[in-house]
Amino acid sequence: MTVQTKNMIATFNFTVPTTVKFGCDISKEIGEITKGLGVEKVLCIYDEGIKSSGISNQIIEHLIQEELKVVTFEKVTANPTDSIVAEAAGFARENEIEAIIAIGGGSSIDCAKAVNILLTNPGSIHQYEGRGVVKNQTKPLIAVPTTAGTGSEVTSVTVVTDSKKLRKMVIGGQHCGATIALVDPLLTVGLPPAVTAGTGMDALTHAIEAYISKGASVMTDINALKAIELISGSIYESTVNGTNIDARSNMLLGSLIAGVAFDSAGLGLVHAISHPISSHCGVPHGTANAILLPHVLAFNGGDERVRQRMRDVASSMGLPIHSIDDQEIVKSIVEKVTDLNHKVNIPRLREAGVKKENFTTIAEDALKERSMNFTPRKATKEDIIAILENAY
Fold this sequence. Notes:
14 helices, three-stranded mixed β-sheet, 392 residues, alpha/beta
């Protein structure tokens, strides 16, 4: 018998490590949900911004109502470092905590994931860089995202900055994700416009890079394209009218399913370049991604496979695709992303504090990033420097 293979779906791996509970006011159930895990003492991890917004107090009150013992670590910084993770892990051990609750954006959730790894796995966080290196089961971790950006609440990856080498370590695998994500759009209503814009464009980058990634599959494609549709259609409204709950919900859902997509598909050149930009120049991760995205898309458009995939991206963005060749479609997407950046006030690299003298170091470090394994068009150091010049 002859087996037909032309239209068969390729082999793929797909994982969703986290149970998701999504909805307005779902965060109010955190006390009951945490109690249901069979724990008594929990550590809440967040930053000063979350504390000043009052969100952390709301979460803690719900926990106390269920007679849970709560300790807090409030020193999370943007692009959390190995030293912050080590300090928080030491604090958690001293207090004999049984579960962790991460409240905030990607930095708080990434920090909490890294701390959780160290509570049941020996040594420093440095020795777990890579995928599949974390061997021991971690403690229960509940992620409560307050930004629509990283998707960290549903990924099996944490990113920690090596403070000596000034580079980001990517740590991922079976025991690196959150146990439960409580995804409440109402917690994002108070986000300032600049944070809404930066984190939102970060999520759009996740979705697009996942779709054109070498690691893409039918499962990641479904999530990536829907995320592109939701985010591109709602980011402007959520930025200029932050109380629009429909727009906030679309952004948070888009961010979440973009996280589901890239966790299995991988990312690409935007992230490979943005990581060293954040490490060396202190630019927020989402903002760096947003700045680079149109320029990397233009570069990737030089690949025939990418051009074909871009037709679906354009359709999800509501752009015309009929009677238009692939080159024009790439151009229309680049123009659309550039326009979104302009509308939500994303700066250029020079306005974000990046210096041209950093370009060579950024390019050299970008080539070492794991995301380079998934980018659809191979880039040289000279290609990356040219992209940085265009984004400057």
